Structure formats: C-alpha cells, structure tokens
Amino acid sequence: MTGAEEHPGGPGEEAAWHRLDGRTLVVTAIYLIGWVLAAGGTTAFFLLRGGVSTTVVLTFVGGPALLIVVGGVLVDLVNWRYEFHRVTDQRIEKKFDFVFRTHKSVARDRVRSVDVNANVIYRMLGVARVKVGTGQQDSFGEVVISFDPVDRTVAEQMRRELLRKSPEDTEQDDAAPLARFRWAWLRYAPLSIATPILGASAFGAVMQAAEWFSAEAAVISWVGDLFDGVPLIVMIAALAGIGMVVGSIGALALWIELWWSYRLTRESGTLLVRRGLVTSRSLTLEERRLRGIELVEPIGARLSGGARLDAVATGLALRADDQRSDPRTLLPTAPRALAHRVAAAILREPVNPTEAVQLTGHPPVARRRRLGWAVAAVAGFSGLLALLGALLTDVLVELAWISAVLLLPVGIGLALDAYRNLGHGITGGYLVARRGTIRRSTVALLRDGVVGWQVTSSPMQRRVGLVTLTATTAANHGAYRIPDIGQAQGLAFADTAVPGLLGQFLESDDDDEVT
C-alpha cells in the first residue's frame, strides 16, 4: 500500500510488506548537504579569513563534509532496504530486520489520529510524512508509528483508510468546511506573545552576529551615539518600539506559514485540519474522543475581539515533535463571534456552551488576593532593581522608580480583570469554567467526561474560606482548575455537575475534610 516494492510475508499473512518510498535517499542527501554547507561553510569562512590556505580548508572541511553526506545516505539506504511495513484489516505493523530486529504492531482500532505533513523539500519531491497516533503510552511517551517518507497520494490514502472505522463509513464532501482561511485574521498575529519574543530575539541575533565579527563594542557605541543626550526612558521606549515592529513582521510571517490554506472539515467521523505554507500539514481528531472545547483569548486578541479554539480530547498529544503550534488548536485566533459558531458546529450543539451560560462569579475575597499578588510583584521587582542600583549603578535606581510608577497601575488593572474573569456554570451536558487575564481560558467540559474532583485549600485560602476545585479528566492535561471559589459554593457546584462524587463532603461540616 505504501511502497513500490514488496517483501512477501509468510503463509497466511493478510497483506504484503512494503518499503518506504525510494525518494528517502534524495531527501536525506538534501538535508545533509544543507547541514554541511551551513556548518562547513561557516567554518571555512573563518579559516579563510584567518589566512588558512584554500587547499587546507578543502582538505579538512570539504573531505569530512563529503564523508558525512555519503555516510548518511548509505545509512539511510540500509534503513530503506531492511525496513518494511504493512496495514492489514486488523493491525498496523512495522519491522526492521538487519543485525538487530524490531517489530512494532498496533491494532487498527487503537488508531486515534493520522497526521500528514510535508515541508517544502518533501513537497518538491512529491512525498509526505505520516504519523499514526494511538493514544497509548509506553516508557518513551505516546506510541506513534511513523512512515517517513511515502508518496503524497499514498499518504492521503493511508489517512482516509486508517480513519475509516467500518466499511459503512462514508466520506463527506468537504466542499463546505466548518471554517477556512481568512486574510482578515492576520490582524491578530502581531497581538500574540510571539511579537515581543521575536523582537527580543532579533536584538539577540544582532549581538550574536556582532560577537562573531568581534564588533560588540562598535555596535554598543553606535547605539550610544544614536541616543546621545536622549533621556533614558525615551531610549528604552524607542528600542522597545523598534523591537515590536520587527517582532510584528516576524509574527505575521510565522502566522502565514502556519495557517496558510487553513480548512477545518468533518470527514468519516473525524475533524480534519489542513494548513501550512512552507510545510503543509493535515491533522486529524476523532469526534468520539472529544470531551469539550476550550475558548482561548490571549489579552491582545481579546482586546481586539478575537479568540481561538482548542480541542479537549482524549488520546491527543499536547506537543508534536515537528510542529510549532499546539496540535490541539482547531481554529486560529479569529473573531470571537465566529469562534463561538465554529465551536457549536464542532460540538454539534445549537449554541456554544461557553456562550450559552451566565457564569457565576467568585467571592470578593478572591479579588483582594489578586490585588495583593499584583502589589507584591511590583514592589518585589522594583525593590530588586533599587537594591542592585545601590550596589552597582544609579541607572538601575532610576529604572526602579520608573518601573514602580508604570507597573503598579498595570498590575492593579490586570488583578481586577483576573477577578472579573473568574466564573463557573452548568449548561446542558457541560460544565463551564473561566479563568485568566493574560491568557483567558473558558472551557466547556462534558460532565460525563469528569472522572473525579480534587479539592485543595492552602493555609491562606482556608483563612478566607476559599478552595481550588479541580475537575480531573482523561483529556489533554488531565485536569481543569477553578481557583478561589467559595468552599460551600464549590462543593455544591461539583455535586450538581457530577452528582455523587463529592457527597461525603457535603454531608460534613468539618473543614479538615477538605484537603
């Protein structure tokens, strides 16, 4: 099914064994050539710049580079020659038989996801990488079977076949996707946390390049001359502005690469996300594994009316080895109203549960706790700067009072917002909980997906009658917290949401039973 050459199995076997696509050798050669050009080229540049002769450089850099490329291709040739796989009606099998023998076998009914991706080199060669997730765990993490590479057409056939649970399953026409790429969503990209990170990384890259050419002092001197006579706070603001502009450009480029050609469709009982510009990806999730939906609103997107959707599902890896975004994300940051509509469609509900319920707030003492944390954080940061300034330089003392003046109102505002965002409620078959300010999260979790409750109370919480209620589930992180809820309020909510699990606590007035 997944290769042009076959290796016959023994008597009674249901299907022939196949090799990976032979273009794997070309892929390996391209990767290795690129790596040795980057590493060897940099080494050769500095050697030539230091006066080393061209002959010596070619001998001691070009020779090892050639050996690395040839050796890597030969190793991959052995792997291609002796690695086989097959897909039968009952199992997916993969084996390697050369010196050491390995045989991996997974039942077809354990397949939870089949993800297909292809970077620009794979796409040029017409191949793709297929990763079959099982939701099972071993000592090395999730059990995943990879086929890398196979022909792109074969990869799509594998995905469709492995996700078809029965012959009666029919594939729906994906001409009417649940959501698709919109250029207007680009406006949310610069509002993400990636923007300041990329901006700071750009400054770091400049200093790293300067270090390579021993020009750090010259760069610092140039910046000093540029801002000569300018107040410190103005210089900091200008550099921050430059960093944000550079970071915004980088965030836009990253967003386009990740979400270009995005489509969310339903197919054979699965949700299928297709996306990517340089690297195309097809990510799948079985609908029967869904336990709810999470509406995520980073503060920048929230202020501009945006939100994204993450799946709450069992058997879903939280991080993928070759992806730069969370594989749970079903919808990138988009207008909030659209996110609600898509969430309702995903859950097959008339209205998104996170929108359908009026959430109950938490006691006012939870607000005081957050205000105290904010003031303490600002005081601690400014105090540390002042202490270092007294020991090192007056510049840090000036930064201390500037940071206190600027950060205190910001901290208080965030604390008040964090309190306003606390809430919980029940609608139909879902319990809904909201928390956070920098990253506000509203999760709608199936009530029958909750397998237990954990009630914790720190010494400070006990003094003011608060607890943290945690719903445990087999999906995603395994737990969803409802912090700083009133003790009686929280226990009553838990018992109403999932009757019977916390009945023993409701029958007792002893606070020591809440741990």
Question: Any overview of this molecule?
Answer:
Helices cover 44% and strands 27% of the residues. The chain is of the alpha+beta class. A seven-stranded antiparallel beta sheet has the order 8-7-6-12-11-10-9. α1 packs antiparallel against α2 (54-82) and α5 crosses α7 (232-259). The longest helix has 29 residues, at 54-82. The radius of gyration is 28 Å and the shape is flat. The model is unreliable at 1-13, 170-174, 318-324 and 509-515 (pLDDT under 50).
Which segments are poorly predicted (pLDDT under 50) over 5 or more consecutive residues?
Answer: 1-13, 170-174, 318-324, 509-515
Kindly state the mean pLDDT as a whole number?
84
Give the tally of β-strands: 21
Give the C-alpha Rg. Answer: 28 Å
Major sheet summary line: 7 strands, antiparallel
- Given the helix and strand composition, which structural class is it? alpha+beta
* Percent of residues in helices: 40-55%
DSSP helical segment count: 15
Gross morphology: flat
Beta-strand residue fraction: 25-35%
Distance, first to last CA: 55 Å
Strand order of the largest sheet: 8-7-6-12-11-10-9
